Amino acid sequence: MNKFILAILITTLSGCSTGPIKTTNMAFQPPILINQTPPALASHQIRQHSILRMNNRNASNEIAEQESLLPRIVRNIKQGVASWYGPGFHGKKTATGEIFDMNAMTAAHKTLPIPSYAQVTNLENHRSIIVRINDRGPYVGNRELDLSYAAAKTLDMEQDGTGAVEIKVISDSQALPQLQQSAATQEKNVYLQVGSFGSAKKAMKLKNKIAANNLPEPDIRSSTYKKSTLYKVQIGPINSTAKANQLNEQLAEIGITDTQFVTESKQSESSRVTM
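Below the sequence we write its predicted structure tokens.
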């Protein structure tokens, strides 16, 4: 009897092992891992998240502002040794393409934007002037700035040749009032110089171009050193920043963008060039 039951069990198990395995007809669906909507936050939780994001943003802005402030100060205020250049370069082109005038208040620097303005202070006598950066240099030793002869003389540096200075970069709008104040003490005026040439014909051509576009007619002033004569095309005198801005906008419309403020003696008929 026991043998008979055992035979039945063996037969049954054998049949199960060789028969087909039953599977479900339902397709397998993997769990969704993206685009799930998170549970709604309570109103106080939303406020906390908003405040946290705002604080983080304000902190980031404050850090960025502080990080940008130091490089800006270092970039706009420099100290170093200044020298000057004059007769050997008078009448030659500067890095801006304009003609170097050793009697104008200009300077050369290796990296400052050209053209741009800077306030230069002699650290020994504390005299200050405004110069226009219109050239590259100096490339001698560790010098920071190369002044025109006129700028060096005003700072009382022409005899020694070099001196310790502080250089502070300023905008055009900052430069003009200081130039006007300085000019008033010297009985001079500030003009907007729109070009300088070694040729009177080129200066007259620019003058006529400006006058033909219903702009204030410029004057041409000549400056001679030894055998070199410069012809400077100037509009003015300039009495306000608003007037200067308006003139520069009008000049830019006819393709004249390389202008500068210059301090000159008041124009007289004898100093004007006519053809």
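Confidence is low (pLDDT under 50) at residues 6-38, 62-74.
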